[in-house]
């Protein structure tokens, strides 16, 4: 595992730039906010190893946090799909069924024989 970047080697402007970039700001917007040129931000992103490592670490931390949040919503999403199967409108029932089948790879193009969960299901 790679060592964490030494953030003490980054300037305040670079730290602030990382905060803005992970929020989805462009190089130009970031540069204007931190008081440097767009080219400087671009050079930090492409050529400054400490900056790149810190930016990538923050992106991974953000992604990991959002992934955990999504995992927490899975149960609620399945409940909604299950409710859709009970809907009075057949189109809603079908849409829910298709989503469920896609989620377990049973809808769409034929696939090779499955292993694991799907392989353990009894055949009719």
Description:
The chain has 124 residues and is an all-alpha fold. Helix content is 65%, strand content 0%.
Major β-sheet profile: none
Mean pLDDT over the full residue set: 87
> How does the helix and strand content classify structurally?
mainly alpha
Q: What's the assembly state of these chains?
A: single chain
Question: What keyword list fits this structure?
Answer:
Arc Repressor Mutant, subunit A, 5 helices, 124 residues, mainly alpha, elongated
Question: How do you describe this structure in short?
Answer:
The protein is mostly helical and 124 residues long. It is built from five helices and no strands.
Summarize the topology.
Elements lengths: L11 H11 L4 H8 L3 H10 L1 H37 L4 H14 L21
Helix pairs in contact: 1-2, 1-4, 2-3, 3-4, 4-5
């Amino acid at each position: 595992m790679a060592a964490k970047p030494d953030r003490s080697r980054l300037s305040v402007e670079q730290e602030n730039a990382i905060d803005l970039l992970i929020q989805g700001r462009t190089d130009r917007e970031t540069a204007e906010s931190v008081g440097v040129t767009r080219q400087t931000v671009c050079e930090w992103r492409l050529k400054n190893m400490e900056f790149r490592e810190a930016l990538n670490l923050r992106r991974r931390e953000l992604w990991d946090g959002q992934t955990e949040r999504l995992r927490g919503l899975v149960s609620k999403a399945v409940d909604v799909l299950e409710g859709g199967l009970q809907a009075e409108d057949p189109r809603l029932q079908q849409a829910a069924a298709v989503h469920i089948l896609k989620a377990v790879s049973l809808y769409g193009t034929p696939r090779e024989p499955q292993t694991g969960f799907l392989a353990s299901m009894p055949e009719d």
